[in-house]
Amino acid sequence: MAAIDPLTAGAVLLATAATDAVYVMFTSAVVARKRVPAATWSAIWYLLSSYAVISYTENATYVAFAAIGSWVGAYASLTFLHRPPGGPPVGAAPE
Question: Where are the transmembrane segments (predicted)?
Fold first, then answer.
């Protein structure tokens, strides 16, 4: 079994904590139907979890495209789901 590097372990712990915290903020903004905050938190979430993109493509430039795509996707989704306050949510059964 390989030895555990305390610096790497701490970095993984902090990165995971930050990613989950941002995910919670994203979810909160989605529930509140706030498009710009949700889109922004989504982009930050992708930036934090972009290690896989860098690892697989070996080009960090693609991270910017992932963040932009995330922002646009969250903003567009909430634009489509946006309803005036007090109205039924999208997908609710008619009364």
Answer: 6-26, 38-56
